[in-house]
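In this supplementary section we document a worked example of the pipeline. Step one takes a protein sequence of length 98 as its only input; no multiple sequence alignment statistics are reported here. Step two produces a three-dimensional model, which step three serialises into C-alpha cells for compact storage. The input and output of this example are shown verbatim.
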Amino acid sequence: MFHDFGVMRICKAKSDLKKRLAKESSSRCGTSTVAAKVLDGSAVLWVVHWPAKGVIADFVLNFKPYIAKMLVDSDVYLIFDRYRGYSTKSVTREVRGM
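The serialised model returned by step three reads:
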C-alpha cells in the first residue's frame, strides 16, 4: 500500500489487490458452506437493475429480492463505507482531482 520511502501508492486497479488477496479453493470440493457474505453497498448499487424511467421506490423493488436471494444461503452484511478526511480513498480522490 506504501512505497519504500513512505509515500502512499495510488492504486488504479482494485482488481489487482483483489486477486492477490483472493483465497483459492478446490473446484472438486463441491459442498462449500459460507457463514456470511460481506457486500460492498456501493458496488451493489451498480449490480442491481436501475429502471430507466422510475423513482427510488422502483429501484428498491429490485434491491430487496437481490439481497433476499443471498440471505437464503448465509448471513449478509451490506457495508456502505464513509470516507474520512484522512482515509486512503480520500487521498486517492484528491489526487485524481488534480
